[in-house]
Amino acid sequence: MNEWPIDENFIDYTAGNPMGGIINLPDQYPQLTVDVLETADEQGGVENLSTGFHAIEFLLWGQRADQTDGPGDRPFTDYVDGGTAANQDRRRTYLKTVTEILVADMKALTAAWDLGDRGSYGAKLMASPSHDGVTKILEGFSNMAISELYYERLSDPYRTQDHKDEESCFSESTYNDLVANALGVENVYLGHYGALAGASISDLVRAKDSALDGQMKDQLTAVRAAIAAIPQPFDHSVLAPADSDSNQKVKAAIDAFLPVQPTIDLVAKLLKVQINL
Fold first, then answer.
1. Contacts of 241 (CB under 8 A, 6+ apart)
2. In this structure, are 137 and 266 located in the same domain?
3. Are residues 30 and 94 in the same domain?
4. Does 121 reside within a domain?
5. CA torsion sign, 86 to 88 to 90 to 94?
6. In angstroms, rounded to a whole number, what is the distance separating the alpha carbons of residues 131 and 135?
7. Is the pTM of this model over 0.85?
8. Residue 189 lies in a domain
């Protein structure tokens, strides 16, 4: 649902290839059905992504020809018969189909956590031995916090300064993604989601070592605050001079993560959980 980076040329036209992509290849892809687009995903390369949120993002906003300008500015006439670009009818069909796929995937994810269905992932997790369940929760928490948010979504674009490493480069909404990601990571540890709250990893840690629980919570709060302090848009702050305030705030958000991984290791050890960071 959220794969990136995307080779835009695999889906539609770009400045360097006005007839590129599946949309402009009716001989190779005569039908733009769910099966066709799902089968095409990653054909020929890991960036050849035909489905997911960022495919829709590209179809709506279009390519960003210049990384310092944005977001993309795809004209609505790309979808109007007789308008701009070629194959407007196929572009409409593609957008409709890929959106249907995303909605179906989201519904499947919701169903996977339906505790009323004994065969669902959520129900099986609840029925598993408690240590197994805690292990899976902590693995997911650590992977999202460290592998995804710290490395892929913050460190990689800062290090490479390549717009393709920016999560939502077409709509230039990456800042919103990062803020929500940081809140999501914190929610998993605390067992919170909006007004909902329940048993949590934090509860287990606090029962055994309240100081360590406080340390983990303080670090997650610091990460969220540091990310929220990055000036928008995110990629402009990444590309700003290294001694600028905006660039330094991106670095500060990255640095805020440095103590988090060792603390997660301590949490895992305390709960006798083996995780792979």
1. 247
2. yes
3. yes
4. no
5. positive
6. 6
7. yes
8. yes
CA 234, CA 267: separation in Å to the nearest integer? 31
Residue 275's pLDDT is what?
A: 86
Please identify which residue in the block is written with the tokens 């290791």.
265
- Supply the pLDDT for residue 277: 58
Domain with 181 in it: what CATH number? 1.20.1420.20
Residue-wise pLDDT tens digits, 145-169:
999 999 999 999 999 998 889 999 9
Number of other residues whose CB lies within 10 A of the CB of residue 220: 23
pLDDT at residue number 268: 96
Beta-bridge mates of residue 196 = 193
Q: Are residues 73 and 167 in the same domain?
A: no
Q: Determine the Cα–Cα distance for residues 3 and 1; give it in Å rounded to an integer.
A: 6
Residue with the two structure tokens 């906003």? 61
